[in-house]
Amino acid sequence: MSLKERVYHFIEPDHEPGRIVDVAIIVLILLNIVALILETVESIYNLNRAAFELFEDFSLTVFAIEYLVRLWAITANPRFSHPVTGRIRFVLTPLAIIDFLAILPLFLPPPTVDARFIRVIRVIRIFRVLKLVRYFRALRLLGHVIADRKEELVSIFLVLLILLALSSSLMYLVEHEDQPEVFTSIPATMWWSIVTLTTVGYGDTYPITALGQTIAAVIAILGIGMFALPAGLLGAGFVDALAAHRSEDSERRCPHCGELLDE
Amino acid sequence: MSLKERVYHFIEPDHEPGRIVDVAIIVLILLNIVALILETVESIYNLNRAAFELFEDFSLTVFAIEYLVRLWAITANPRFSHPVTGRIRFVLTPLAIIDFLAILPLFLPPPTVDARFIRVIRVIRIFRVLKLVRYFRALRLLGHVIADRKEELVSIFLVLLILLALSSSLMYLVEHEDQPEVFTSIPATMWWSIVTLTTVGYGDTYPITALGQTIAAVIAILGIGMFALPAGLLGAGFVDALAAHRSEDSERRCPHCGELLDE
Amino acid sequence: MSLKERVYHFIEPDHEPGRIVDVAIIVLILLNIVALILETVESIYNLNRAAFELFEDFSLTVFAIEYLVRLWAITANPRFSHPVTGRIRFVLTPLAIIDFLAILPLFLPPPTVDARFIRVIRVIRIFRVLKLVRYFRALRLLGHVIADRKEELVSIFLVLLILLALSSSLMYLVEHEDQPEVFTSIPATMWWSIVTLTTVGYGDTYPITALGQTIAAVIAILGIGMFALPAGLLGAGFVDALAAHRSEDSERRCPHCGELLDE
Amino acid sequence: MSLKERVYHFIEPDHEPGRIVDVAIIVLILLNIVALILETVESIYNLNRAAFELFEDFSLTVFAIEYLVRLWAITANPRFSHPVTGRIRFVLTPLAIIDFLAILPLFLPPPTVDARFIRVIRVIRIFRVLKLVRYFRALRLLGHVIADRKEELVSIFLVLLILLALSSSLMYLVEHEDQPEVFTSIPATMWWSIVTLTTVGYGDTYPITALGQTIAAVIAILGIGMFALPAGLLGAGFVDALAAHRSEDSERRCPHCGELLDE
User: For the stretch B150-172, what's the b/e string if a residue is b when 16 or more beta carbons lie within 10 angstroms of its beta carbon?
Assistant: First the structure.
């Protein structure tokens, strides 16, 4: 086995997760998330600015090396064996795109004085959390579930959009006159519709006329179930997928030692 | 095949959706919805008033022609073959009524100075969204589900009304004295009941006395499930219907080419 | 068949609902509910005070006659055949108690000047809505479902009470110092717990400290499911019972005429 | 049977619940909870300070005696038969730890003037409610359900944490500029995420920009289902476990007298 093949099998955690390098990268990703979250707390950031910057530079270096090693070793994978086209195809896979986004700040101009731009650059690093998808099957399952239920989800979203248009137009018609500064337009009323139909109900906008409240009651009682559908479908699919994988695992493992049988 | 029969089969998308004329009408309907929604944003409307009016005139013309063509060609359908009574029965079908409502503004007096009336006319056009029912099976399924579960829905609504009457009367009795301007009457308290039992909870009305809060807690814990029933029933029925149609499709289609087999 | 037996079979709608006398009483009950609800709207009440009082007197008379007739005829029922002890046992059945409560105002002292007492007397009439249970199977089903699931419900309420005590004590401990006027005591904090765990979320009380918000998040994510259980259990049981009765009906009825077969 | 064995079988309610000593301890625990809850209501506490303190001393004494008796008699249980190591292992079982926590105040320094510390000591007594676990199977079932679903729950919490990080970062990015005092940092925005995704929706924080509201709508529609999963999983598992135990019971009981058969 060549060095490249060894490296490839070392970094691809598909079959034997839990290696030391995997754990190290997972920990680094989690620390990145924690750092990003804490950075936005001004009191913490001001006291540890240098440490945050050092950690970011370190992370960028590690992720860049990881990316280059993956790019070098990927040709050991028969699906991407061609040195040029194989690597290009690899670079365009979802996981490789996530890896690239994680090191994107390397290719951006140095931070300017535009506070908003700096914040965007900083916060966008949150997508490094998606690097975890490579290491946790549960996250990949969620992707499969969405792909599996695509057809139903599209149908449901069509219905949701129509419900949203109808309920927002109706409420705008009924409440605009009495609350012109709240139900200013149909797009603004859509916020009311979503807050109501997901049952979140912040209380920033609500009908005050008797007619508006009556219509809102009917909309809520009939519509809440439709808005709960996509979330319920994904949740149920995810739990099913988790259960299916668990029983699959138990079949493939030795009941005595717990090791996988046909590995 | 006569011209009328050809036209009929051309505009009736029951078996072969996706024709160019269908796509054109779907796009026009969607643009109508977008236009209506944007019109209510004052800044956008004031800048593009002429464009909006032109687009409305164009849409009205197209929908009117569509309506007349359907009315002319419908006698090619054996169910509506009689030139007079067939057409009258067709005009009274739900889809034809929706089509007629879409062109209703043609038959209304020119807009007056009454701002409210103008807004009603304008917003009522949102029901053009229902024209989409002809082109999307998912929307028709929803109608079937409601018809299918009618008996259960009626029973549930009876229970909901009684729960609503009981909980509103109780809360009115307990809270009226302490919050006479919030729980002014039982009809006003019904708004509280619905906002609570759907778990929306805007926070515009809530009990403040210890007794009121205790009763509200009991009402909420026991009643929330009943108010979730109609929505849950419709949602579950819709998902089942989607799944059933999908498996039905896979049976009727050639596994090699994906074409329908008994068309 | 004696007159009493005829009367008994006439007023007991167990097997042949839909008689004219049933419909009349159902309509009278519904009108009573509507009247009670409208009475609490001051503007309506002040304009129609005499009509409301007349209608109440009329209703009381009808319900009293109905009660006496039932009491007289009940001995035609073998279960209550003894003229004295049968009638006493009948008077103590749930339906007879509801009927008695509906005419209770006859036995109360004339309205005094105590506004609160008058309101209690007036609103308590809402329980006349329970007279509908005799005429609608869906309402009786709900009672059966509660009886059926009693054991589970008791277990769940035990868990809910413990959750409520734990979460309220914890939040009181954490938030009392920072919001002494909101989380004044554990009983007051229980209102927060219930509003949160039922996901109603009025927004009248919520944690503001970081620790309180963290604990609230954990409580919410884990506890919401438990508080949804009793409602979900009753709802699911009710829908099952409705479905079971429907299929039972279809078995017992003639498929040609729709009449019951073994009546 | 030695005295120790008799005592052991007397206090261990595993097979024959309902003895007088069990009922007495259950009542004492419940009274403790009620006392603790009422103590936090200042008006009640100030009037009955001496009674509350007396009752606490009494409870501590009873619980201490109970603890010592259990510790003495436990060696009658074959699993803990060794006088020293058996008792040490017993002391570390969850139920024994709960029993010890209930008498912890005995080992703490006398109350000082630090009001906060006194409150912590007082409220921490709420965990005495967990002593009920020994006497109610429903509470033990809940523990089994959590252990049973551990694997799924861990996977779901991983997904929830990632969703929480992504949605909070996104909303912070979008809303921070317009509401710097509300969405101050990502940890602060996490409170918004949890309040929204559990559909509680207090209304203390919500997006006000059009972009923020649009992103919030997408997050809500897709994410609510995931946050409902752990609660739903536990709730469903609990109901299943209750039903399973009920049918198990009915098998083991005599259908005539209701007594357990193989006791």
Answer: eebbebbeebbebbbbbbbbbbb
Confidence label for C145 from pLDDT (cuts 50, 70 and 90): confident
| Structural contact between residues B171 and B183, judged by C-beta atoms closer than 8 angstroms | yes
Contact C62, C35 (CB under 8 A): no
List of residues 6+ apart from A109 with CB closer than 8 A = none
Q: Is D185 exposed, middle or buried (0-12, 13-18, 19+ CB in 10 A)?
A: buried
**Structure confidence by residue, pLDDT tens digits, A151-204:** 888 888 888 999 999 999 999 999 998 999 999 999 999 999 999 999 999 999
Collapsing DSSP to helix, strand or coil, A239 comes out as helix
* pLDDT at site C262: 45
Q: Do A40 and D225 touch (CB under 8 A)?
A: no
Question: Sign of the CA dihedral B203, B204, B209, B211?
Answer: negative
The pTM (predicted TM-score) of the whole model is: 0.87
Q: At what angle do helices D150-175 and A115-124 cross, to 10 degrees?
A: 170
Query: CA-to-CA distance for A212 and A191, rounded, in angstroms?
Result: 16
In terms of average pLDDT, the best of A242-251, B250-259, C229-238, D173-182 is D173-182
Q: Report in angstroms the alpha-carbon separations of D188 from A40, A121, A128, C204.
A: 10, 20, 21, 19
Whether A194 contacts chain D with CB within 8 A? yes
The amino acid at residue B227 is F
Q: Quick one: DSSP state of residue D134?
A: G
* CB-based burial label for C67 (10 Å; 0-12, 13-18, 19+): middle
State which residue of chain D sits closest to A139, comparing Cα positions. Answer: D159
Measured between CB atoms, which of B123, B187, B204 is closest to A169? B123
Write the DSSP symbol of residue D109.
Answer: P
* CA–CA dist D74, D77 (Å, integer): 6
Alpha helices in C149-209 (DSSP H): 150-175, 186-197
Instruction: Output DSSP code: residue D22.
Output: H
Task: Pinpoint the alpha helices (H) of chain D.
Answer: 3-11, 20-39, 42-47, 49-73, 85-91, 94-102, 115-124, 137-148, 150-175, 186-197, 210-227, 229-252
CA distance C198 to C247: 34
Pair of tokens at residue B255: 């596994």
What pLDDT does C256 receive? 46
C67: helix, strand or coil: helix
Residue of B nearest to C129 (CA): B162
Q: Phi/psi class of residue A18: alpha, beta or left (left: φ > 0; alpha: ψ in -120 to 50)?
A: left
Question: Does residue B252 carry a pLDDT above 60?
Answer: no
Cβ neighbour number for residue B104 with a 10 Å cutoff = 13
Name the pLDDT band for C17 (thresholds 50, 70, 90): low
Q: What's the mean pLDDT in B168-178?
A: 92
Tokens of residue D225, six digits: 């289902």
Indicate if the alpha-carbon torsion angle C145, C150, C155, C159 is positive or negative. Answer: positive
Tokens of residue C27, six digits: 């309509």
> The tokens of B153 are what?
């829905």
How far is Cα B234 from Cα B143, in angstroms, rounded to an integer?
A: 10
Mutate to test the interface with D, among A32, A41, A200 (most CBs of D within 10 A): A200
Q: Which two tokens stand for residue D229?
A: 């999963």
Q: How far is CA A166 from its chain centroid?
A: 30
Half-sphere exposure (Cβ direction) of D188: Cα atoms closer than 13 Å: 20
CA distance B142 to B241: 8
| Average pLDDT estimate for C15-30 | 77
Cβ-Cβ contacts under 8 Å, B156 against chain C: 138, 238, 242
Q: How far is A214 from chain B (nearest CA, A)?
A: 8
For residue A199, is it left (φ>0), alpha (ψ between -120 and 50) or beta? Answer: left
Q: Which of D172, D196, D200 sits opposite A40 (nearest CB)?
A: D172
Neighbours of D122 (CB within 10 A): 19
